[in-house]
Amino acid sequence: MKKVIHTVKSKIKLDKNLIIFLLVLLLVGLISGSIFSTILNSSDELLVNEHLNTFLTNIENNTLDYFNAFKSNFITNILQVILIWLLGISVIGLPIIIFIYFSKTFILGFTIGCILNTFKLRGILFATIYIFPFEVINVIITAILVMYSISFSIKMIYSVFKKKTVDFKFMINKYLIILFICLFSNLINSIYSSYVIPNILKNLISFIR
Description:
Largest sheet: none
Strand content: under 5%
Order of helices and strands: HHHHHHH
Number of strands: 0
Structural class: mainly alpha
Oligomer: single chain
Helix content: over 70%
């Protein structure tokens, strides 16, 4: 019984430490990304403004290719999920997983900063529609996968260096379930971001611009 309690406590402690680490990394990524958006040179800032305005213009004129937007979004997210999952199995993938997660939070912070810099106070509406719930769910999915990937990688490293056997079959089966959940969640999320968000923005463009 004591051994079981100790194992449970150790797992909770590990998960708690990982959650705190990922939350701190999330905040650092968001803040650094938003700050970086404010120090762009004039040519880069112009490109960002043109990209955002073109996106809204395509929505307004019904020229946005929804299927290509969905395909691009889905493929990008799926490849990222599979890459993180595979890196979790390898012993050397830990720093790359952390870098991918930080890059994702940095890009999110950069995107929010660019929207607010381009549309000022009106950009709050744009950012809110774009971020909630699409990007929030996306980050949560990535965070869950990253947490399990790091945990899996740490256990593999521990078993190698401590020369202790682990129930690899049980671990990989659980890890596969996490993969399928993340893939399905990304499918739903990609459909929402590609078809629902543009239609919501279409009715609110006059308030954003």
